[in-house]
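Let us begin with a simple case.
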Amino acid sequence: MTGRVLIVDDDANLTSTLELGLAQRGYRVVTAARAEEALTQLDAEDIDVVLTDLNMPGLGGLAFAERLANSHPDTPLIVLTGFGSYEAAVAAIKAGAYDFLSKPAKLEAIIIALERALQHRRLRREVARLRVEVTTGAGPRIEGMTVVSEAMKRALDVVARISSSQTSVLITGESGTGKEVLARAIHQRSGRSGPFVAVNCAAMPESLLESELFGHVRGAFTDAREARVGLFTEANGGTLLLDELGDMPMGLQPKLLRVLQERRVRPIGARSEHPVDVRIIAATHRDLESRIEKGEFREDLFFRINVVNVALPPLRERTADILPLAQRFLTDFAARAHKSVKGLSAPAAAKLLAYDWPGNVRELSNCIERAVALTRYDELGVDDLPEKVQQYTPTRVVVSAADESEFVTLEELEKRYTLRVLETLKGNKTATARTLGIERKTLYRKLESWGVKDET
């Protein structure tokens, strides 16, 4: 990440040295010997970050920091001075500086500070842009979904093409990725006049689910004191979402298959069938093909449902959507709570981007709702976020980084890689040990030394 840097220092030799070193790293550099000259350049040019001395003739570094914070609040300032002390650092930060370095500072340290400042500026601008988009409704939003990432755009492109058809759709993805939201979007775009009805196939036992889906007549079983219309009939003319279809009991699957093939429903205890006009959308976080191999799901039902498959990627694989979603949630929850919360601070945005979001969009929504409820300011800060988000240490393995702080020791690298493999393999320690090429007891010993509890 490079940008346009303004160096403000009356030491011509130092300025020349820095200008040469930064230019070799791809930065575009402009210089000023005095703060007054720098303020004029800031008004005339688009500067990404300012690097300034603290002690200069005329307008001093602290006064310059205050002026810059007022006139160009989105331009981060890094103070570089030979009179470094804790007191000077505190004064500079209070005056509006983003970072503080003491002379003599190595070029690599300066570059790291510049990269962080540029990232901070980018996040601030992104948060501001998203705030405007959500407020004006100009952002990429479709029936409750906020989409920026290419992966989600591809998914919605499929939705746009099949919404008006009567084709059955299978939506797959981890819990919390927005499968029901997408199903509602398909229904709303379908033009069907009937209702959208949803049922969770994993939430009730087989006998109750059968009655829920198909209905029953009075006296069909002990507790059937009155007739009941099933969800297939209730959704007539509309759409029925079979959520968590992968958890449907095996005994009920052939009955569902028959309804899908014949488009007719026989309530429990009834002597006759009646036709239904229902579009079926199924959703699951399960790998249905794997369940077919294990004999836990019918292959013929899978082929009947899986006419069009829409796969929703997890949030960690579409990080471009994190901040737009967070801003949308923030705006919605602030309005409900009657709080004047406008947006995210750049450090809070950075924490959201770094977190892995195992609970996906649902977890992000809960996180922002909590933060809005707790905050005392008009921006969400890092302290408003859940502790696990604040203190999150990524398990991803960094082998190439611009920031030297991202590199870790070999021991930490081994730990992160091991935990990432264990997570990917759903906690299967035998498979993890085999993948890592170590004995299972060795894996147990390592996990114990890292304080990872054995929950098996």
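The second case is a distinct protein. As before, the sequence precedes its structure tokens.
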Amino acid sequence: MKMRKTAMRSLAVFATFCATALTVAALTIPNLFPFLDSSGFVSTYSSTGSFNENNAFFQSLGTNGRTCATCHVVSNGMGLSAAQAQLVYAVSHGKDPLFSAVDGAVCPTAAPRQSLNFNLLRQYGLIRIALTLPSTLQFTISAVQDPYGCAITTDPTTGAQTISVYRRPLPATNLGFLTSVMWDGRETVVPLNNVSTFAANLFADLSHQAIDATTIHAQAANPPTTAQVNQIVNFELALNSAQAIDFLAGFLNFYGANGGAQFLSKVPFYPGINDSLGPPSGFTPNAFTIYSKWASSADPNQRSVARGEQIFNTQPLVITDVRGLNDALNQPTISGTCTTCHDTPNVGDHSLAVPLEIGTSRTVNYETDPTIQAAVSQLSMPNLPIYQVTCNEGPDAGEVTYTSDPGKALLTGNCADVGRGKGLILRGLAARAPYFHNGAAATLDQVVDFYNVRFQMNLTPQQHADLVNFLKTL
């Protein structure tokens, strides 16, 4: 054990040195290069081999100096951690393109005699998303809390209203498992629900997303060329990222385990695989089997990870008041497990697009459901605008929701979509804290705390620790 810890420390020093050299010199990044994170090392595997910054993904195609890699950082498992944003701010004194006012600031312009505020990006890794309300709405929306002064803005010419929401950049990796593009699905221009059209539709959706990201976030005067878009999307689709080494459990592909990005690249997927809401015969709750061989390991840390995997698969949950699930199935209470919603084998998102609202955008001060209120109190919620959404039509008429993010409803205008967003792919988690779409969970411990209360998991302290240890190895 002592020798392994010494080897881990040596690898940490080496990897940190090499990562710095790669960043400074913009050298080719070897396949599966280990990058230090909070609990070990994360790595990215490309099916095309090592990669460098000659790809359009790493090139500035807009007017503010940003590239795709500004928010999708290789050392963060192709995501963006709040720690990375804080570091970039400190090193650049806030001058890095990451902190472009268009969406890096809490509002694109500062109040008179005040400087731009980048605190949400620095502290939570949140990007401002400005969404114009659809012309047809089943609800009215107003801001009951507007800490920055731009929660709702109105175009003086058209009268169209724009809502500011704040979300984490999604990792530009493991995209071959997607069932919708973006948290609210707004870039899913063609559906990802059919085996025969999945590959072509995914390429089309990611192409649309690459164009929008370049014109909106990079503020390009012109969209990228077809060649540039194809280069970006092909690069992204070749990537898989996952935790490679855990400080306590060691190398995650040793002794019969199947952790790491290279194994993940070979995991089979098609829309609807192991769908928990489909025919019962086609679903097994044992969706994760990466560490099953560690159940009998001599190493107590490896046994803990294996127990955590089984807890994820089998620990009973009492699922109530989840918009998009309980209401859609007309079942006030559903008995499930974590894999009821995270059913894609060894990946963790839902294998079909099922956007849900579990309460992570709610706020303690306005919440009336005691279970959701208690769960939200486990989190480190950022100071965000709070919207009152009042439904005016249909079976939900009269229902009032207080939320920091109305979710999919900002696209559809439908009451049934208020707060709904997709479940994310659960790989490479340790490299990109904080968690949930709004950064409300500072650590994976808080993630488990939230679910433990929200869905009455009744975890013992040991079970809590085991589940967190498992999530760290994904």
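The chain has one domain: 2-472. The chain is about 30% helix and 15% strand.
Keep these points in mind for the review questions at the end of the chapter.
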